[in-house]
Hints:
The structure holds 3 protein chains of 3 kinds. Chain A is of the alpha/beta class. Chain A has helices spanning 47-54, 82-91, 108-118, 123-136, 152-164, 182-199, 210-213, and strands spanning 9-18, 21-31, 36-40, 62-67, 75-76, 93-96, 170-174, 202-206, 218-223, 226-227. Chain A is built from 7 helices and 10 strands. In chain A, helix 5 (152-164) packs parallel to helix 6. Chain B contains 7 helices and 3 strands, in the order αβααββαααα. Chain B has a 3-stranded antiparallel beta sheet. In chain B, helix 1 packs across helix 2, helix 1 (3-11) crosses helix 3 and helix 5 (93-106) packs antiparallel against helix 6 (111-133). Chain C contains 22 helices and 15 strands. Chain C has helices at residues 3-10, 14-50, 68-72, 145-152, 189-195, 213-239, 243-255, 260-294, 311-336, 359-374, 380-419, 423-434, 436-464, 491-503, 590-601, 615-619, 623-627, 629-656, 659-667, 672-709, 720-739, 741-747, and strands spanning 59-60, 62-63, 90-91, 99-109, 112-120, 140-143, 165-169, 182-186, 198-201, 480-484, 507-515, 527-531, 548-552, 567-568, 578-586. In chain C, strand 6, helix 4 and strand 7 form a beta-alpha-beta unit. The A-B interface holds A 42, 190, 210-211, 213-219, 221, 223, 228-231 and B 110, 112-113, 115-117, 119-120, 122-123, 126-127, 129-130, 134, 148-149, 151-152, 155-156, 159, 162-163.
Amino acid sequence: MNTTNTPILSARDLRHSFGPTDALRGIDLDVQAGEVLAVMGPSGSGKSTLLHCLAGVLTPDSGTVTYSPANQAPRDVGGLNEQERSRLRLTDFGFVFQFGQLLPELNALDNVSIPLLLAGIKRPEALRRSTVLLERLDLGSMSGKLPGELSGGQAQRVAVARALVTAPTVLFADEPTGSLDSLASENVLTLMLELVREAGTTVVMVTHDPRSAAYADREVIVRDGAISAGYRIPA
Amino acid sequence: MNNSLTLLGLLGREPSYGYDLKHSYDRYFGIEKALAFGQVYATLARMVRDELIRAVGEETGGGPDRKKYEITATGQDKVRSWLFTPDTPSETLQSDLFAKTVIALLLEDDADRLLDLQRAEHMARMRELTRAKKDAQLLQVLMCDHGLFHIEADLRWIDLTTARLTQLKKELQHA
Amino acid sequence: MNSVLLKLTITGSRSAYGRLAGIAAGVAVGVCMLLLLWGGANGLNARDDRGAWLRETGTPSATYPTPPSAAADPDIDPDTDPAATSEAPTPIPLTTDAVLMRSNPVEVFRDQLINRRDFAALDTTTVSIPGVGAPPAPGEYYASPALQQLIDSTPRDELGDRYGTFAGTIDDSALPGPDSLVIVTGAPEAEIRNSGLNFLVTGFTTDPYGGNAATYTTVLSIGAIAVFFPVLLLISIVTGLGAAERRERFSTLRLIGASPRVVARIAAAETAIPSLIGAVAGVVLAVLLRPVAAQLPVNGTRMFISDLTTGWVAGLIVVTVVVAAAAVTAAYRTSRAGIGPLGVTQSAPETLPRTRRLLPLLGGLAALVLAALLSRTANDLSAQLQTPLLLGGFAFTLVGIIAAGPWLTLLVSRIGARRAHSAAAVIALTRIQRTPAATFRSVSGLVIAVFVVSVFAGASSVIETRPTPTATPGLPQPTSVTSTISTGTTTTDTTSMKDRLEQLPGIRHATIGYGAAAFTEIGAEREIYLRAEDAPSLGFTSIPTTDVVTLDMSFLDTWTTTPVPLLPTPTTTFDRFVPVVIMVDTDGTPGAVDRARTALNTSGITGTPGTTPTDLELQSSARLVQGLAVLAYLGMVIAVVIAGVSLAVGTASAILDRKKVLGLMRLMGMPTSTLRRIILQEAAVPLLTVLTLSIGLGFLVAWLMITGIDDSYTLTWPGTDYFIALVISLTLALAAVVATFGLIQRNTTPTTTRFA
């Protein structure tokens, strides 16, 4: 990790509130390209809100999120309109959540191929790429199964495949192993990080589980809407 | 747990007699095993020698129990550096971390930061173990897991303590 | 039941109240419609009962001597058998308990048929005419209020002169509806006797249907089924509102210890309460809307408001049945859903529809085919079987379409899913493939509506496409008015008649046709003689060069379609003949035609009233079906509106039930436009699949039913009304789906989705 580079994601003085509740109270955070960052913190600390702001799901009340991928001009994520942000999330970002993220009616292969179809790739090509990825995730034999027929760990690996199938620059994961047992968690994270490091994908992973966070390169703690004292960017 | 640094930390609040110091210590940390007077006086003598503390206003020129001690600048530095130097995760760590947290709260120092530093240290060790697991023999994986789960237990305690710091501080101040 | 549990289920979130309000509103609309329709059906019956007396045909007013040879050989046609013409009939004299009645089959004003009855009675008569009392004196008349208004607002020489002096209005109790055109006139006995269309009447029938009863009730019942079915569908859809959300609440109840029975009972109570509120509101609404509904013309006339009154018993029955049905259905659905303490398994697959779902549809069609075949073999058994077969077949076909819909939807989505290329298509088609029944349910209303509309459009096309008569040489001119001349009329009478007519504005020419004897006389012959110079005014182009020409009397028959030729005849005078017919050529304006009718009908020398070739349409026997077309359009409007509402409801719940997954899709960067396309396709696929079928089946069923009722009816292309209705239905469907787009935007905002 080369810290002299411009961070791929850089948040400055992010503030956001939901009604009377201040979810973020001035967050500064840099995420380096290719880095795997764990965002930890107690429930309700604002870590998911931070992830949403970084990924352009939420527009912060104030502050900036600058996205500076290699060979591209930096963009202020919060300044993009809804359509541009959707496009950015589709092409540059990938998402993995705790559970319930797969379309229950679609089989594993179709679930993985949806982002490619959305990006305008022809279906045969989309299915081909999805198959390759599923095989990398040890799911070659599961591609015809419905999400309801998969185990939690398998479903989560399908979700990882779906998130990575578009070769995103940044992968956002929100409690990706939150509903899995230790072994399944390990399995999912190992395979995910193997693929991620191979491709040089940056990862921002929200988790409250230290063993999952231990797969990251570093962690930050969010507490009461701010980065906890020991993890702040040195002034 | 480092008794001498804990006593030094307690002295950091205000100058006090050896006798009071022993009772303070027992109240916060001696729930299971109280400190012996002899041990307190020996430690105090050693700290005077190391110029971490000094005796003030010797009354009746009597024995050590009639002496009031106060912390020196060197002593204060020593306490701070102790507080904010995270320990290598180990099974005996918790009692020391506990002492550090209480002392930090008593000294009205940044207990949050102390816990964060310790957490970072723990996380670094966990990363190390996690990396070691990769491509390792199953036996070694199991060993690493053993370490990981113990460190995780510490981390959970750290998380919980962090969450309770405000309440803890209130209780200590009223104690 | 535990009232705390009930309270827990019913009260709560705002969306729960919204759901309850939706159920109440839907049930209110449904009950209101049911009551109005019930009232309408009652009203039609009451109307038919009141109009029954108009069906009285009486008994012959004269005795005809039995020709011995005719009795010996029934094959001999008395009209052409010289033996039959030997003796004149003997008139039966009037008594105090019998009056002489002339029922005029084609009393027409503009394009409206007037029910006219002329009476001659002794001064001492005891016969009472419904709505009038004692028969009017000669030269006086009683008219229905609607007709009297028409008379007053029209120049007398076009209408009023036909009837004489106004004596009073006919009471509502003898009128089918407020728009009925009925007139009762008094006439001298001799005039009626000479007209040849007279009967003796001692009392008036109360049987409203006569020979048509079966057909009439069949058509009415089919109309009722067609209109009630969508209403029931609406009630069924609204009571199922928000089922997914509710299941979560129920599983919480199961978790805290409620048994499945208790949960089913709570579901029943929870649906029954808003249903009851809605049903009571529906009754109130029906009472309020009655005057509005009465304004709708059904079968040619509006209703009396009192006809639509159903009484409190009907109201009570509808409320009870609807509430009970809603509660039982809710309990049944809940117990079927298999709600456990941990909720319903989210991905519990729908049982895929089997091919046997086609059975009701095939059964229904088979019944209709059988009915159509039976109508070609006239015997008692087949006549008895026909009505149940038609009704059963229609009901089964309706149910069958609903049953077969999911299966067809599955078939199409399976084929489509394999070929899909866009994300929206893959998601939509795969979802349909997994949940064909749920998906079809949301469009079922519209599919049924289109089916019903197609059936009625097909059925009413029977009449609507009858070609308007055009001017053809050899056939009566469409603008001509023709009347037969009654017995005993002299040439002097007809000549002065002709002169009077030709002075009226808009009347170009009057032609007198001569024959051996008046058409009602036994000595009448088929040939009509007329002057060659009159022929051009009758539309003939090829005229023989003789002074007098002849043509066959079939020229006067409205059913004649091949031109009748003019033939030369050596006769030069009409000395041996009497005038038998007068044919008036008008300029075709409605005023002129009605002036001609009025002049002819009041001349005292005409046997039948003046008719034009277009009058036939007004009295066709198929008019019964057409009259009910209004009911059909009413049903159509109701069905289409309900279908639109249910589609919107169905689509909305398809979105709400998948809030979370769709929210995640948006978070992943799926544009809202793709979500919209998913929702559109989920509605379009089942709709278009079954719509084609609905249209085809609609016309097939219409054809089967029409030929099942009477095999002489034929079916042609539907009118533009139908295509307009179809376009409106599809537009409404589109609007219903588009209206839910707002929901997509609001409910799938990634940030409102709690996913961690």
